């Protein structure tokens, strides 16, 4: 069977200039993704609450000859997302690529966690992604092209103890993305999931050491930490760039990235 990869011309034509938005670009996977997208030629809009950290990443992009803009973004506030989207389009023009990356996890035992805290995590990890979709995807559908990438987590398919609201949010995120993929079929807009395994970033750096030890020991106990290797953020950034630079006619629906086990002697 011959599988067509589509064409770079005609109805699959891509504009040369593909402005990209990255949320949670102030650290970790988001910062690495902004740098990689810029290196691949995308003008990049960086959003997060720590604007100064985004500015540092943007400065590196500009030093390398790329184009970057920074605006404050709090995904838990609809007004903030709408103001961010307006400012980005004013700076870079119509957005072609949206990377929904921002997320957070706090450890806790489900029956002890306050429901308000549980809801706050879902509000960022799931509803925040929906706020982003509302702000950018209608325009993409109208223009009949675009890429949306949801950064999920392996907890979406293999839940880990003491992070139940995070697991619930990522399960929800993948369910939302799967439904969206069907709704967008034939619109020229591709929605994709990139699902990282354990990755070195700032995630968990604010955890109490005893809590972190409890969580890691539980991972081992339930067979969820088969080896101690973590991914570099650049590995996830590369996967995201691969997804959004796939030729038209190809849709990378889901890319799961896991740390390779150390090679045994
Ligand atoms: N690290 C891992 O092992 C791992 C594994 C699987 C999946 N992931 C996923 O990867 C994504 C990136 O996480 P990371 O590992 O790179 O962690 P990180 O270094 O802690 O980055 C998280 C980012 O989210 C942003 N953020 C948090 N709350 C926000 C809000 N209310 N509004 C806007 N931005 C907000 C943070 O920026 P500000 O604080 O400046 O707002 C930060 O830039 C997350 O979706 C996470 O679930 C990570």
Question: Can you describe what's shown?
Answer:
The chain is α/β, with parallel strands linked by helices and 265 residues long. The protein has a single domain, classed as NAD(P)-binding Rossmann-like Domain (Rossmann fold). Helix content is 43%, strand content 14%. The chain has helices at 28-39, 51-63, 78-92, 115-143, 164-184, 209-221, 233-244; strands spanning 20-23, 44-48, 68-72, 97-100, 146-151, 189-196, 254-257. It has a seven-stranded parallel β-sheet with strand order 3-2-1-4-5-6-7, sandwiched between helices. Helix 3 (78-92) runs parallel beside helix 4 and helix 4 (115-143) runs parallel beside helix 5 (164-184). The longest helix is centred in the middle third of the chain and has 29 residues, at 115-143. The protein starts with 19 loop residues before the first strand and ends in an 8-residue tail after the last strand. Mean pLDDT is 94; it is low at 1-10. The protein binds NADP nicotinamide-adenine-dinucleotide phosphate.
**Strand order within the widest sheet?**
3-2-1-4-5-6-7
What is the approximate shape? globular
Q: How much is the radius of gyration in Å?
A: 18 Å
Strand/helix succession: EHEHEHEHEHEHHE
Oligomer: single chain
- CATH fold name: Rossmann fold
Instruction: Give the DSSP E fraction (strand runs of 2 or more residues).
Output: 5-15%
- CATH class term: Alpha Beta
How many structural units, i.e. domains?
1
Major sheet characteristics: 7 strands, parallel
């Amino acid at each position: 069977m011959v599988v067509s990869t589509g064409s770079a011309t005609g109805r699959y034509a891509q504009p040369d200039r593909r402005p990209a938005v990255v949320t949670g670009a102030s650290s970790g996977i988001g910062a690495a993704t902004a740098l990689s997208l810029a290196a691949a030629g995308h003008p990049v809009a960086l959003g997060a609450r720590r604007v100064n950290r985004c500015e540092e990443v943007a400065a590196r992009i500009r030093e390398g000859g790329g184009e970057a803009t920074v605006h404050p973004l709090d995904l838990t506030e609809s007004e903030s997302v709408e103001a961010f989207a307006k400012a980005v389009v004013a700076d870079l023009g119509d957005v072609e690529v949206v990377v929904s990356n921002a997320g957070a996890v706090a450890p806790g035992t489900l029956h002890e966690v306050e429901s308000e805290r549980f809801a706050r995590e879902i509000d960022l990890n799931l509803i925040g992604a929906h706020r982003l979709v509302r702000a950018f995807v209608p325009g993409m559908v109208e223009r009949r092209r675009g890429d949306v990438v949801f950064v999920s987590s392996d907890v979406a398919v293999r839940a880990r103890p003491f992070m139940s609201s995070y697991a619930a949010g990522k399960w929800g995120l993948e369910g939302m993305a799967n439904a969206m993929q069907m709704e967008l079929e034939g619109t020229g807009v591709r929605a994709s999931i990139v699902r990282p395994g354990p990755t070195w970033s700032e995630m968990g750096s604010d955890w109490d050491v005893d809590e972190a030890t409890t969580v890691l020991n539980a991972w081992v106990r339930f067979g969820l930490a088969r080896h101690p290797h973590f991914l570099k953020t650049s590995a996830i950034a590369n996967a995201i760039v691969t997804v959004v630079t796939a030729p038209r006619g190809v849709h990378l629906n889901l890319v799961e990235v896991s740390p390779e086990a150390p090679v045994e002697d």
